[in-house]
């Protein structure tokens, strides 16, 4: 009863913001996760919230987020790799490495934190909001960095729905198949990829979706790489067992990823768990948004937009050149 009283109002507020975000996002290509963060920022800065909300907000942005990430693993079906040739898999891996490296280099140039640069790179390179949510606790990013990186990544992803088809068909004169590769390998959210790909043709849409699913699969090796790098950095003087400690939500993430890969559950169950994960992620992001101040966002906002634009441009150029040379 004490737990319920301590967290009830904050949880209800996060759920309410998440519900509004779902409704609003159904009319735009922004995405419910990014919308939830933005609405949370608006509410948190427009209204001085009573202390009675704080416990529930913290519960959502920490514990609900961890549960959402664990369940998110069900979206990873490694059998999708069978549908791609080695050439396309290598293209996806190389594009992710180029994107993250570009973000780190630009972060140094514009003097933003390494964690912030990594979030922008991982969000653009892998799978947008989900990748940022899955890695932010591992690298120790703060709420402002998480909120701003998700907003920037989704902003350029939404623009990309209209830009990528023009680049593919008008600028590069790609076939439908190659246009699908470009869309799948550059846009961030699955919805953005589907919208851009199928606006070109069914072939482009199907190809883009498979490429995008392959990028999502890359989240797992990236997560474990970050765990190793950042735990080693934090615990350099301690033993190897301590350095290699894996967060509980990542263990859940891996276990849930095994379910569809080994056909332990059906497609309907995968769909249900995936939706639950998505809704929990929206609620968690509402909590993160409520903790972000406009003042803190303005500090890095301009740099983040410039870096986000340059990262997206590098993604498009790299993938377009690779397609032109190897396909």
Please supply descriptive tags for the structure shown above.
327 residues, mainly alpha, 0% strand, globular
Structural commentary:
The protein is mainly α. It has helices spanning 2-25, 32-46, 54-72, 86-109, 114-127, 129-139, 143-171, 176-186, 190-200, 202-217, 219-234, 240-243, 248-261, 267-290, 294-326. The termini are far apart. The longest helix has 33 residues, at 294-326. The chain has one domain. The chain contains 15 helices and no strands. Helix 3 runs antiparallel to helix 14 (267-290) and helix 4 runs antiparallel to helix 15 (294-326). Helices cover 81% and strands 0% of the residues.
Shape: globular
For the termini, the CA-CA separation is: 62 Å
Percent helix, as a range, is over 70%
Q: What are the segments in which pLDDT stays under 50 over at least 5 consecutive residues?
A: 237-244
Beta-strand portion reads under 5%
What is the H/E string?
Answer: HHHHHHHHHHHHHHH
Q: What integer is the average pLDDT?
A: 89
Radius of gyration: 19 Å
Number of domains: 1
Number of strands: 0
What's the helix count?
15
